[in-house]
Amino acid sequence: MGDVNELAVSGARAAGRLGRGRWGTITVVAVTLILYAIAWPTLPLTHDISPPLLPLISGMAVFPFLLVLVRPALGWAVCASAALIVPVVFERLPGYDYPWQVVHILVMLALVFAVAVREEIRIVLVVWVATVLLFAAFVPGSDGWGWGIGISALVVFGLLVRWLVVSRRQLAREEEANELERARRAILEEKAHIARDLHDIVAHHMSMIVVQAQSAPYRLPDVNDEVRAEFDVIGATAREALNEIRTLLGVLRSDGQLPEHEPQPGLDRLDDLFESSRRAGVLLETLVEGSPGRVSDGVGLTVYRILQESLANAARHASGAAVCARLIWEPATVTVEVVNGPATAARRDPGGAADRSGGNGIRGMAERATAMGGQLVAHPRGDGGFEVRAVLPLLPTA
To answer: What keywords are assigned to this protein (predicted)?
Structure first.
């Protein structure tokens, strides 16, 4: 659920950035068209330019503004080049003292500000010095240096805006990192709480079962060999469960990583699993068709856990019933089937089938199968028994 929420937040942020970028582009294009609509008809009022050249010269002055959001340095270079050409090639009309149109000056100043905000510092310095020299060279009198002071102030303001934006972004990243760390701590605390409860309740009782099973032949009188063997089976099964609980406790108490060298059960332990079930009194028949060849550890663990849970369910909910575990190895898939008949009338577990069909064990097996790219179905049979069938793809061994 936490991953889903994080993806949703990231998607919302990306959509917000996309929306802002789209509206920014529309605004720049609209402003450029408005400036161009002003520059073209007013250019003959400031410079002596033949009508066929009016759209070209106006475009050189205005269209670089289209790059203000993406490549302001390139836009400034085009605009400054036009600012060099116009006063040299074309005469100003009497009564107009500036070498460029007002629209041209506005576009150049906007691009200088954008360069100060977005580009590298060395590029900012080049643009700042070149623009000051450009105004000093072409604006008559002391006004050129006055423009230089104004341009310097504009560059300083742009740098302040740039550093403000950068600091806010860094602050936002730090806040996001702190939020992720708080969420991680909360998860670790919850895992530690679960581990404590699991240790105090389950592990304690399992330890007591082991102790009672091992000491029963010495505490109880007249314990024959058959009962002693039954106690040994109970103790061995409880110890195996206790070892797995301790492994789980180690995972819960860690930072979420599996122990690097902790062995996980796989295909090599299936015979032990089957023998343990038989010692527990399950009338188990096993059938293996085909050869597994090389199988990934994930598939081997999933096969083991599905068989383990299915056999445990059969022993718990269908006591005394015959159970058949079948493995079908094919070139691309493995099929795991566990089928049990109805429990004997004397030992039937009322409600067991219902509990099994809707319990966490079936759900856990299905999740394991889905995680490996396979599928699992579990359902009651018409004869009163139960069937679990999983089909898993054989992933290549890493």
So the answer is: Kinase, Transferase
What's residue 90's pLDDT?
A: 86
320: left (phi over 0), alpha (psi -120 to 50) or beta: left
In a domain, 229, yes or no: no
Taking CA atoms, 170 is separated from 40, 117, 118, 179, 215, in Å, by 44, 16, 16, 14, 64
Give the chain's mean pLDDT: 80
**Rounded CA gap, 39 and 106, in Å?**
11
Three-state DSSP class for residue 114: helix
**How many distinct structural domains can be found in the chain?**
2
Rounded distance between C-alpha atoms, residue 315 and residue 234, angstroms: 13
What does the pLDDT look like over 118-134, one tens digit per residue? 888 999 999 999 999 98
Does residue 203 contact residue 248 with C-beta atoms inside 8 Å?
Answer: no
Which of 140, 171, 202 is the C-terminal boundary of a domain?
140
In a domain, 201, yes or no: no
Say if 12 falls within a structural domain.
yes
Instruction: With H, G, I as helix, E, B as strand and everything else as coil, classify residue 377.
Output: strand
Residue 221: strand pairing partners: none
Q: Checking phi first, is residue 222 left (phi over 0); if not, alpha (psi -120 to 50) or beta? A: left
Position 221 in a domain: no
Instruction: Decide if 104 contacts 79 (C-beta within 8 A).
Output: yes
DSSP code for 202: I
Domain boundary among the residues 140, 174, 195 is at 140
Domain of residue 53, residue span: 2-140
The DSSP secondary structure of 214-244, one letter per residue, reads HHHHHHSSS--HHHHHHHHHHHHHHHHHHHH
Of 227, 239, 319, give the one whose Cα is nearest residue 272.
Answer: 239
